[in-house]
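New to this. Look over this protein:
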Amino acid sequence: MNKSFILFFLFSFALSAQDKLIFKNGEIKKGYIVSIGQDVVFFKKYDTSLTSKQIPKADLILLENYKGDIFIFSETKKDQDLKKPESPVFKRNAIGLQPLAIMFGRATIVYERFTKDNKIGFVFPLSLTFDPIGTLYNSRIDTSMNSVKRIKGVNFIGGMDVNFYIGKNEHTKFFVGPRIRYGTDMFLRGIEAYSIQTQFGWKIGNPTKASIQHLSFGFGLVRILSSPAGALISPKQSYGWYSVNYRVGIKW
């Protein structure tokens, strides 16, 4: 075998041993892959080159090395980062007060826990009840024997709501769900009762911001368990019941 044939064979092998890059714009480059980084491919056009060129993976469809191994590039990290704003991280905890309830003898604090997608809220209210007559309301005008006397002391009302948030408007979200309460209401002359209602309303506030408000209406039944008021309110009876609620709070 003569020397010229051997040189031709080695030269042909060297050409076929090159790596191949295929770009998204249809361009094909042959050369030598130095290494593959997280976001770039280090590439030399000639094996004898002292420096390598950085080619972004975002520009490539695939590469094929001289062994025939093929590497296919899918979405780049940059493309994935652009999609992150489409899935915002919602604040899932909220605590609030019901300022208007003070006028009816209730100091109420409410905690709500939202699901990850902000579509369901589990609400846990706790009210300290008191009789506002004689404190918030002046009863000294009526001096007759039939005037309503203030009931001393405090008591509690607790319960749970489940709010199902509906609609695409994230800033003013409509909700509906069950509302359950049990306790002793000092404003209603110390009756012990439980109520079951269907509640609907609106949550107001950006889901990614700290401030939040709720306005809701409830309709249902109340069951009187015991009543110190005697004939004024009959115990062991059920009555139609409604509620109007306003809550303001913060989220985290």
About this structure: The domain at 17-85 is CATH 2.30.30 (SH3 type barrels.).
